[in-house]
Amino acid sequence: MDYVDLGRRIRKQRTQRGWTQEALAERVNVSTSFVGHVERGTRKASLETLVSMANVLDVSLDFLLSGSINNSVIGPMPRGLSTQQRSALKEILSTIQDNLSEWEKDE
Asked: What is the pLDDT of residue 62?
């Protein structure tokens, strides 16, 4: 599980809404310091808390977890890729997914 990527996605969604960590914490019913830890990837949120965060941020849970998922909606990773190639492909897919999420908001 890539907790740093998960936290980065939560932070990005929170800041796009203009919310502070305190505002997100109040909406999810957790402490402000816990939100900070989750955003830095230093604490693990329960599934219940992640679902609540996804709902409050109006994103899907798979979007928040996509940095940790080996198989995405486009299918499994191609075989024979080096670790560096897999990492680059994940980053490309993550960037595309982030942009698609922003485009959907503009519509």
From this structure: 80
